[in-house]
UniProtKB/TrEMBL annotation:
GO cellular component: a single term: cytoplasm
Protein family according to the UniProt entry: Belongs to the peroxiredoxin family. Prx5 subfamily.
Known catalytic reactions: a hydroperoxide + 2 glutathione = an alcohol + glutathione disulfide + H2O
GO MF, one annotated term: thioredoxin peroxidase activity
Keywords for this protein: Antioxidant, Oxidoreductase, Peroxidase, Redox-active center
Descriptive protein name: Glutathione-dependent peroxiredoxin
UniProt-annotated catalytic positions: C55 (cysteine sulfenic acid (-soh) intermediate)
Gene3D superfamilies in UniProt: Glutaredoxin
Role description: Thiol-specific peroxidase that catalyzes the reduction of hydrogen peroxide and organic hydroperoxides to water and alcohols, respectively. Plays a role in cell protection against oxidative stress by detoxifying peroxides.
Single GO BP term: cell redox homeostasis
Domain Thioredoxin: 2-168
Cited InterPro entries: PRX5-like, Redoxin, Thioredoxin-like_sf, Thioredoxin_domain
Length: 168
C-alpha cells in the first residue's frame, strides 16, 4: 500500500471536458498522474463510486464547499478519483456542481487504485474492484499525508481533515 513519502504511481486517469479550452478537446482527456501533480500541491480524495449515497451527500460536497479554504491553505488542485468512466464522472460533476473546483477523474479500470494498493473488492455486490475511500495530500508528486477509511466509514478522508493537514 502507498504510504507517506512515496511518489504517486504513474497511471492515466480520464477527465471529461464539456467545453474546449486550454488545449483540451471536448470529451474524455487523459490525465497522467505524475505529470499532472509535478510542482503542485494536490488534495486527492478517492471513493468507491459516483452517485453513491455517502459520496454524493457528504464527500464531494465537502470538498466543493471547502474549495476556497483549501486554496488559501496552498492547495493548487482538488482531485476526486473513482473507479468509473469519464462519462459517468462528467455527469456526476454536473450533478455536484464541481466545475472549476474539483477535477472529477475516472479510473475506469482501477489502474490507479490498484497501483496505490487502496482497493476493495465489491464483486459480491456486483460492483467489481473499487477504490477504497481515502484522501491524500500530494506535494510535487509525493504523498505528504494519507487518510484511509475503515470499510463503511467516513471519518478521516473528509474536506475538514484535509484542510487541517494542508494548513499544518
Amino acid at each position: 500500500m502507498i504510504k507517506v513519502g512515496d511518489t504517486i504511481p504513474e497511471a492515466t486517469l480520464q477527465e471529461y471536458s464539456e467545453v474546449e479550452g486550454n488545449g483540451c478537446s471536448i470529451g474524455p482527456n487523459p490525465v497522467k498522474t505524475r505529470e499532472a501533480a509535478a510542482g503542485k500541491t494536490i488534495a486527492v480524495f478517492a471513493l468507491p463510486g459516483a452517485f453513491t449515497p455517502t459520496c454524493s451527500a457528504k464527500h464531494v460536497p465537502g470538498y466543493v464547499e471547502k474549495f476556497d479554504d483549501l486554496k488559501k491553505a496552498g492547495v493548487d488542485e482538488i482531485w476526486c478519483v473513482s473507479v468509473n468512466d469519464a462519462f459517468v464522472m462528467g455527469a456526476w460533476a454536473r450533478d455536484q456542481k464541481t466545475n472549476g473546483k474539483v477535477r472529477m477523474l475516472g479510473d475506469g479500470s482501477a489502474e490507479f487504485a490498484k497501483a496505490t494498493g487502496l482497493t476493495m473488492d465489491l464483486t459480491g455486490k456486483g460492483m467489481g474492484v473499487r477504490s477504497a475511500r481515502y484522501s491524500m495530500l500530494i506535494k510535487d508528486g509525493k504523498v505528504a499525508t494519507l487518510n484511509v477509511e475503515a470499510p463503511g466509514k467516513f471519518e478521516v478522508s473528509d474536506a475538514g481533515t484535509m484542510l487541517a493537514q494542508a494548513k499544518g
